[in-house]
Structures are given as structure tokens and as C-alpha cells.
Amino acid sequence: MKLHWTELLPVDRFSVRTNEQLGEREHKTLTLLYQPLIGTAAISLYHTFWSRLERDSYWSDEGTHHELMVLLNLPLDDIFDARRILEGIGLLRTFRHTGDTSASFVYELQKPLSPAQFFRDDVLSVYLYNRLGKDRYRDLRSRFLIDKIDLQSFDEITASFNEVFSSLHYSEMMANDEMEKTTDLEKDLVGQGQSHAFVIDEDSFDFSLLRADLPVFINKEKLLNKKACTVIQRLAFVYNIAPLDMSRLIQQSLTGDDQLDEEELRKRVQEWYRFEHSNEPPALGLRTPSKENKELNEPPVNEKEKMKWFYEQTSPLTFLKSISDGAQVPHPDVRLVEMLVFDYQLPPGVVNVLIDFIMQTNNMKLNKNLVQKIAGHWSRKKVHTVEDAMELAKKEYQEQKDRKQAGANWKTSPSSKTVSPYVRKDKLPKWLQSENKGKETSALEKHSDLQEEKLEFEEMLKMRKSIRQK
């Protein structure tokens, strides 16, 4: 995970620029289409950058990141995370110049996709559908629809360019050309740049394996052009398709001249996903940037470090699937994980710790109310690292254990006539057990499953004996 203080300080200065005029349509698109995917903090940061641009101005005055912290009422690490989310989804480009004592940044706002582009996008439209649900998605999409006009009975009488304008003389064309060359040497025209769509890392899909698996009679260079590769890469990312499976789907989507039919490929991919997984579209999950964490580059040396590494490297859904021995994760659990990542803004590694803690201490049940209660507590405590989450979970477990022990002592005291109930003992991960119980833990580890069952059986006999005596 990138540490924000190594990248950004409150004293670092910044300015905002854009090469597109932003208006009411962009505001609605950001609020209605992008906000459900990236959250309010990222949208607020975008609007704050936008507000620094004066009317009809494309470059702002300089400011400091401390000003952003005051305006947004957010700590710098939240602003850093929001900035990365904007960068990832294609709404912001960031440039940095490092000086002797501080750095300066240029934040270039990117115009959001138009509603038509957004709903035709293979990645964003699918994630928005999953986020909102079928009915809400359709209602929202209908807000951006306009009725088609049947023009078959009409004759188009639109004037052409040469009917309205006359051709320039050669001398006039030369003058205009010279004027453009002399006045715009170091300038960018407004609207000159194309919309900066979000980028998916090229290494996320193995095109070399895909090419090797395609039949030899197919012209691979012609088939896998830049546009086709972009479509393939996005579909593979959204639906988690391996290169060999994608090869088979591509072969089923070719036209007569070995060209890729993009609509047919989308249809085949969706059918494949429904067959292999479920009818629910895939959900958007924030990737854990664990490979950027310097601490994780060193091999783990003990049980705690191994678990920390595992939490950091594993996505929450993969972690849930591993707990259930590869079984399909129930949809309510998928929604619960999505809520922890988006609504409570917990990093995926922290989500894994929370899930493991809840399930290990509650008979492998993922109780929604309990998950929300602990997630709210961790969010207020600003738990952002796996190590902090493990320490907090260990402390919470010890408090629960002390409360149970106090209750058991009271119930078994001579003055109490009630009988201590039988308490099920789950096998807990080693990191969750208190460090000051190390000797006791090491002794328990030496017991076999048969001995544990024997102890539980003896406790049950004692409980029944006490009941008979009563």
C-alpha cells in the first residue's frame, strides 16, 4: 500500500488546469453515474478542483494541500486516496515536480464520459448495474434517453458547407497558416485533447498466450488490432477471463473475414459468465496495491507475518472462497464485502481481517449487524493497515474472553446457584490469541483433535452432573 506521506505533504503546492469547458451535463454525469462507483470523497475532490477554475478560465492559481484539507474537512491520507481513485477511473491526470524542500503538482481535470459513452462502456456500465440493481439502473438510464424521430417521411434540406461558404484564396490560407504557427507555438487549444478514459494495466492480461492459442490460419495481427485488444482486455478484467477461455470466445465471435464482432464477443462473454458463475454481474472491487508495499517484499518470518502477507495479497472475495474450500460465495456475502469496501472505505486487507475475526469468533457465521458494528468502529478508529486491524481484533477478542471469564466465575461461585453453560471453543488463528498467553498457546497446540474432544466431553459430563445434584 502506498504511504501518502512519502508521496504528498500538506505544504506541497498544486494548481489545476483543464482543456475542456465543464458544465451542467458533466455535473449530472459525475453525480448520477460516477458517484455510485467511486464515492462522495472522490467526487467532492473533483468538484473542489473544478471550483478553483474561474469562469472561462482553464488554469487556476497555486494553492497548498493544506487548503484542500481545510476545504474538504478530510485528512491528507483520505485526499490522497480520493485522488488515486479519480486517476484510476480516468477523471484526473497528475503531474509532479520535485523541488529541494517541497513538491508542486499539476492536476489536469478530465471531462467525464458522456452518458452515451458511459452506458456503452463495457466496464463502467456493468459495475454501475451491479451497484444500483436492475430497476434503479433502468430508471437512471431512462433519464438520459431521448425519443427517436422517424425521418423516413422527411426530406433533409440541410445546407452543405460549400453552399454557404466560399473558398478562400491561396494567399488568405497562407496568412492564416502563418498566424497559427506564430501565435500557438507553446499553447494547447481548448478541447484539443481527447477524453482521458481510465487505463487498465497491459500486464493484467497475457496476450502472448492468447496469440499462441489462436489457430494458425487466423491473421492475428489483423485480428488483434489496438481497438480489439482494448475490448478484450476490458472484458477479461471485468469478468475475470483467462487467456485460453478468451481465445475460445473470440473464435466464436469472428465474422466471415476473420474480423472480431465486438457485440457478439460481449454476448458470448456474458453467456460464459452466467454459465460459469451466476446470473449476477460482477461487482467492482478495489485492488489491493500490495506489491507497492516495501514491507511485503521481504519474506514473512513468523505466523503473524505470514497471515499479514496473506491478508494483503488476497482479495476479500477470494478470501471468502478460500474459507469455504472453494465453494461459491453467497450473494449476500458479496454485497456485504462490497459495502465494507465502498461504504465504510476499508482497505481490502483490513476487510479480510474483519471477516476472519467475525467468522472465527462466531461459529463461521458472517452476521451482518455485527460486521457493520465492527466496521463502523474500525472506520471511526481510522484503521487503514492490516497490522492495525490485527492488533485491534486481538484486543477485542481478549476483551470478549475476559467478559466471558468474569461471567463464568460469577456463575460458578459458591453464592451463585446457576450452572455455567457449555461454551463452544473454536480454533482461532495464532495471531488472534493474546501474546501474554504464549506458553498456554504452545501447550494447547500439542493436543491432538482426540484430546480436545475428550476435554469437551468431560466438561459436558461435569455440567450434567451439576444439574442432577441441583
TrEMBL record:
The keyword Transferase does not apply. InterPro entries: DnaB/C_C, WHD_DnaB. It comes from Alteribacillus iranensis. Residues 10-181 form the Replicative helicase loading/DNA remodeling protein DnaB N-terminal winged helix domain. GO terms for molecular function: helicase activity. Keywords: ATP-binding, Helicase, Hydrolase, Nucleotide-binding. Pfam families: DnaB_2, WHD_DnaB. Residues 289-300, 436-449 have a biased composition (Basic and acidic residues). Residues 280-300, 397-449 are annotated as: Disordered. Residues 335-391 form the DnaB/C C-terminal domain. This is Replicative DNA helicase loader DnaB. Belongs to the DnaB/DnaD family. Residues 410-419 have a biased composition (Polar residues).
